[in-house]
Amino acid sequence: MSSGLASLGLLASASLVAVCIVRPRLASWVPDILVYLALGLAFGACGLCVQFGLQLSAGPAAGAASAAQTAALYLLVFSSCADLKITSLQRHLLEVGTLLAASVAAFAVGLITVGHIPALAPDATLQAAGDGARLAYFLALSLGVMVCSVPFLTKIFLNVGLQRSPFAHGLLLAACFIDILVWALFSVAVNLRQGNGLVVDTLVQQVLRGLGLTLAAGALAGLAFQGLAHGLRRRRREAPWMLLLATSLLFIGLMHAAGLEPVIGMVLCGLAVAPHRDVFGTAIGRSQALAVTLGAPIYFTCVGFGIQPSSIVSLEAVGVFILWSSVIKITSVSLAAGFIRRPGERRLDYGIAMNTRGGPGLVLAGSAYAAGLIPITGFVALTSASVLTALVTELYLKAAAPRILAADEASSTTAQPLRSL
């Protein structure tokens, strides 16, 4: 058996173990994300693949891992966004706008201060880089501060019982817009890496073009799903799951061909479907069930499977990045929550939750590494931060969930007489 087929067999085995054996037996208090990642590591480049001398960087295993991750990520992102009601944005507008502004501020602070990381923790892989490469590296790391995870937060909210709370709804809406902005800015880092320097006018044009293309794609997806929903209503039928899947994948493919990242297409399609739950409700429910039973275990197992060991990683730089980025993000969001008069404990709740990098952080790390924007140390820093912040958020929100639910219920009860006047 060839090396590629053998590694592909190990990947398939890891996924089957995750779905059929591990997931049904996990206790509710166990951080399942960590378990899936550890399982992937045990089968992948840090485990059995090393023992058998198999390579994962190319061939069937690499292609299959990428395809499996993308499919699982679609289930997580699409089902998460399809559960949001974009029509309720007006009710959460102040909260979403504040969280978005706080994340942009965190990105700006990160971009200003990121140059101190190599001074505090020298990284040998960065020493010989030119000015354009260093700027691209610093921009990618700063995007790693701003990014926020819709799928991870959704999974965590489901685990701790907060998925229907106003707190969760506002956070997830904000995370959608933040991640769209992250990928619009990602092209700027690519341009810096390929170009000779920072040309402000050109980069501004790229950002505006990316945002304009995203808005146009979102409007087109909204119109398409609205038209499909209208046609199904006239026939008094619900959309079958395969029709929803085919339509979504068609738009994601078209958006990708137009220059948008697939993750943006997943988010936009989910948001476009969300207002039409009377037609797509059953199909959305099936997507959400598949996201829990297949999406989460396969995605995180594939991530762990593909992590490559390296002897030139600066662990000191990784630790500094995690601490530096978390302090900036949590502080920025907590301060912003104070401006909209959230109580002290609730401010920290927002800060911890918005610091969850999760899946989009892992995708950002992989995309930046593949594009040559970051060296291996940057890749490990972004992936480590993505995993650790998700684990910290889940542990924190498990303890804080009763208090958050009680506060939301009290707020709703207080607001009830006002609505009846």
UniProtKB/TrEMBL annotation:
Protein keywords: Antiport, Ion transport, Membrane, Sodium, Sodium transport, Transmembrane, Transmembrane helix, Transport
Top-level taxon: Bacteria
Domain Cation/H+ exchanger transmembrane: from-to ranges: 14-393
Presence of the UniProt keyword DNA repair in the record: no
Listed InterPro entries: Cation/H_exchanger_TM, Na+/solute_symporter_sf
TM stretches of this protein: 6-22, 34-54, 60-81, 93-115, 135-158, 170-190, 210-229, 241-258, 318-340, 361-382
A family per Pfam: Na_H_Exchanger
Membrane topology annotation: Multi-pass membrane protein
Compartments, record wording: Membrane
Matches recorded under PANTHER family: NAPA-TYPE SODIUM/HYDROGEN ANTIPORTER (PTHR43562), SODIUM ION_PROTON EXCHANGER (EUROFUNG) (PTHR43562:SF3)
Protein name according to UniProt: Cation:proton antiporter
